[in-house]
Structure formats: C-alpha cells, structure tokens
Design brief:
The structure holds 2 protein chains of 2 kinds. By secondary structure, chain A is an alpha+beta fold. Chain A is built from 2 helices and 6 strands. The chains are: A alpha+beta, B alpha/beta. Strand 6 of chain A pairs antiparallel with strand 1 of chain B.
Chain lengths: 120, 218
C-alpha cells in the first residue's frame, strides 16, 4: 500500500505550487503514471481522497494519465508497446530489451479555482 | 480558474535523499545492497548464513527493516555487528530518508559493506531507491516459479537473484529451469545464485560475489 506515501508526495508537490492567497482551491491534479510504476489507480485515488480532507485539495479530481510500456529491442532495434505479461520483443522474441517508457510517476498539471473567471 | 503545468517526479524527494545516501556510501568506499523479497523467502536466514560465512573478515553493518517488530534484529544480535532496526509501523517499504536516519547511527569510516534488509514485499520497495549499490531479490522455491512474471518491476531493477530453499525442491512444485527462464526473460542481466540456508549450499559462491564487489570499491 505504498499508494499512501505516493499520495502524500503528490499533495506536498501540489501545495508547493499553490498561490499563497487563502481560498484557493484545487479542482484537479493530473498525473503521468507508467504501466511499470507499480501503482494501483483505485488505491491511489482512495488515499488521495482520504488525505485531502480539510485541505485546499479537498474534492479535487485526480486524473491519471497512463503511459504504456514501450521498449526497444537491442537485437532487432524494433520499438514496440508490450504488456507486462510478456517481457520480450514482439518482433523477434528476444528478451534483451530496453525500456523507453512505462516507469513514469509524475505530477504534470494542477487546475486551481481562485475565484476568477474561467479562461474562454 | 488557472492551470499550472509542471513536470515534477512524485518521488523526487526520496530520489534526492537516495542520492545523498549513495554519495555518502561511495565517499567511504562502502558497497551496499538492498535485500528484497516477499515475506518468508528467507532474507534474514540468508543474512545470518552470510554473516557466518564471512566471519569477521569484512567490516560490515546491517539495517533491518520490519513492519512491526525487532525480531530480526534480535536474531542478528549474536553476530556482534553494528545493526540498526527500522520499524516502519505498518509502512510497506523502506524509503531513503529512513535509511539516511539509520546511517547516521553508524560510524561509516572503515566500513566495507552495508546490508539493508527491506520489508518483505515485492511491490512497494521497487519504487524507492535507498541509495544502495545493488538490489538483490530473493525468491524461494516454495513460492513457485512464476514470481518474476508477477512482479516484473522488482526483477527489472535487481541485479542479483537468489533462489533460496533449494533443499526443498524435491517436495515443492517449482521448476528451477522455468523460474530462471522467467527471471531472465524479465531481466537478462540478472546474476543468479541458488542457495539453501539449511545445507549452506550456494552461500560460499554468493559470498564470493559480495567480496568481489567490495574489492572493486577499494
């Protein structure tokens, strides 16, 4: 259940970016989460909701952008998207592959409600 | 409404402290490994056999991670080595700040080896760099041969696989060839050792790997 400490880190990062004025609320937080990052979205949402009660992030939507696992084969140089069940190059079946994406665990966007007009 | 676009790694704080830990260990020429496995694979037994085999020939220290008790640290007490117990109180993994605080309790000068025994868990510790030189993943034959396929992230990050409890092979449903093939299909760079903490099989070869890594540091 490391989603709890991941949620804590997300909240800490978001709070560092919030304007100092009181009353600023967070509407949504967008994440980039790789398929190999070992994060269960439902658990993370649960922890995020639990930890944001009575904070400027209360009620904020957590948008999780999943990043697929993509690899380049060191044998045949083909780049492919693979699933976690088969860690081999789909083209030549070699397991000597380099992970290009899928390890991401990042906060990418914070949407705040500062009481002003929404942008057109 | 405002939109703030950022690019922040969620675990950046952990990674930053892990970098500090790594720099501290490197500055003293200390080789370190992070022992990970599911609960009951035999991490502490491997540690005990390793300490017995190395004897007093290596100056080492141990950081013991446990969810609730200091039972493992008590098991190591008889070896008379510097050991710090981290009780995570429910936390499912060690993180770099916990290891930094534990490191502060040692005198690093003169140490050659630091062994960190993580909390028994094959999922969460994979996310948390502690600043170690290498991750060593332990799987026991009683867990079957498909563990690498179920926990690919951990096996991707490890540089060593110890297959433990090989003395039980006649009694359990575990195909060694399939286990090794599964692990190497996830990570072809893995160095594999086969051990039994009951018969001491494989322990000398594993300890030789430790010695060779220590000598590379000096």
């Amino acid at each position: 259940m490391h989603e709890m400490s991941i949620a804590e880190s997300i909240i800490e990062i978001v709070q560092q970016h919030l304007p100092k004025d009181e009353g600023c609320k967070v509407r949504s937080v967008t994440l980039r989460v790789g398929a190999l990052a070992g994060v269960v979205p439902e658990s993370l949402e649960f922890c995020f909701t639990a930890l944001t009660t009575d904070t400027p992030l209360e009620g904020a939507r957590l948008t999780i952008g999943r990043v697929p696992l993509t690899v380049t084969c060191r044998a045949c140089s083909v780049t492919s998207e693979i699933d976690l069940e088969s860690f081999v190059c789909p083209a030549c079946k070699n397991s000597n592959i380099e992970v290009l994406s899928g390890m991401e665990l990042q906060v990418t966007e914070i949407e705040t409600d500062d009481g002003g007009e929404d942008p057109a | 409404m405002s939109i703030i676009t950022i690019e922040r790694k969620i675990l950046e704080k952990n990674d930053s402290v892990a970098g500090e830990n790594r720099a501290l260990l490197q500055s003293h020429g200390i080789f370190s490994f992070n022992l990970v496995s599911s609960p009951g694979s035999g991490k502490t037994s491997i540690l005990e056999r390793t300490l017995e085999h190395l004897g007093g020939s290596i100056r080492l220290a141990v950081i013991e991670g446990d969810v609730q008790t200091d039972i493992d640290a008590q098991r190591l007490a008889k070896y008379n080595i510097p050991a710090v117990q981290i009780v995570t109180r429910g936390g499912c993994h060690l993180d770099a700040p916990l290891v930094r605080d534990a490191l502060a309790q040692f005198e690093p000068a003169g140490l050659q080896l630091l062994i960190i025994e993580n909390v028994g868990n094959l999922v969460c510790p994979a996310n948390y760099d502690l600043g170690e030189s290498a991750k060593v993943v332990v799987v026991s034959t009683t867990e079957g041969d498909d563990k690498p396929l179920k926990y690919p992230q951990m096996f991707r990050q490890a540089s060593v696989l110890i297959i433990n409890k090989i003395d039980l092979l006649p009694y359990v449903n575990c195909n060694m060839d399939a286990l090794k093939k599964n692990a190497l299909s996830i990570n072809p760079q893995l160095t594999v050792f086969e051990t039994s903490c009951t018969t001491m099989a494989g322990i000398p070869v594993w300890c030789e790997w430790i010695r060779s890594n220590i000598s590379k540091r000096n």
